[in-house]
Write the structure tokens for this entry.
Amino acid sequence: MADPMSCEEATDLLALDAVGALEPSDRDAMARHVATCATCKRAAAEYADLASLLPSALELVPPPARLRRRLMAQVYAESAASVRLPWWRRLVATIPAGRPFTAVGAVAVVAAIAFGIYAVAGRNASPTSVSYTVSGTTATGTLAVDTTARQAVLTVTGLAALPSTEVYEVWLIPPQGAPRGAAFLSPGLGGGPWTAVMQGSMAGYKSIAATVEPAGGSPTPSNTEVLSGQLTES
Amino acid sequence: MHLSDDDIVRSISAHSPEGIEALYDRYGGLAHTVALRILGDRGAAEDVVQESFLAVWRRGSTFQAGRGSLRSWICTIVRNRAIDRLRGDRRRTRLDTPIEGASIEPTGSDPWAAVAIELSGEEVRHALAELPAEQRQTIELAYYAGYSQSEIATKMEVPLGTVKGRVRIALDKLRTSLADRVETSWPTQ
């Protein structure tokens, strides 16, 4: 049985740990000592706080505003999903207003995509990004999933313009359980492709669909989905 | 309305987005500064900061008051992720995982948390400047470059024991120097 560590030895290791220099081989022994020694537990906290003062000596470089927006968009999206409210509620202000009415109107249009994240992962051209071709009754497009950045971008053409009272809502559908409202498709400028950006991991979802919903979205998808097509990699 | 760190901890524990918002508004600048200092790349630094705060959002209950302040906790998370990215070691698990299992609690009495708030960057720089060069270099190699004890020993061509002692002595000197600058009842050795 190894001799128990002394407080003097532990203190040296705690200081190393505070600045991130502790060898992995020393961690367990240090942790066992700290677990039973109130003095060293206090020392660990003090050294951690001392080390956290080191950055204070640096000249503060404020982060760009986009970082806060990006972070909080993701936080609110996940928060909304966890309480069964569509996260798009946070994005209502970003939806362009005053869409012109067209004769196509409230026709049920969908770009429905079926994909198996796990099945396709092995065929990825890149270990961090996956592309899927999506199609529907009148629409075609691409779902680009960046697994490293945990972000997916859906780009679709062939969608009809909608009146201001309706939106295209994108849903992520797990193998079991209810679809989750993930994003709204936004029309491109000058008739360009519609796009939707989704933050977070796509793992665990088997398919994705888009439906026509009332402006502001719906808690659950309406019955406007067209039969899904097969996914093919772009 | 001013939120204390305890309020922020409680808010995060309740899985409130406002808690993360408050945490970011209070320590996001510091986190970004640390990440940028380590990585030297703005895009990478932003990614690390976002990943760190998202990790806190998703695992906020791992914060343990007895192991330091909220400031030191978030600095450790950001610093470790930045070092991992710098060294390309994504399997490394480190200090954002608690050593002991414990439920989250508000910070309560934390002398150095109070001291940290009162200290200015100038005071910390001055205290660091007072350290012997080899002690300061040892800390910087560890904290900002992510070198381990053995790697520092190799780089500075000194025994392992020397590195171990230098770090502890340097932090003890910092404690003494900074405590002298701020009135505190916390005892120094």
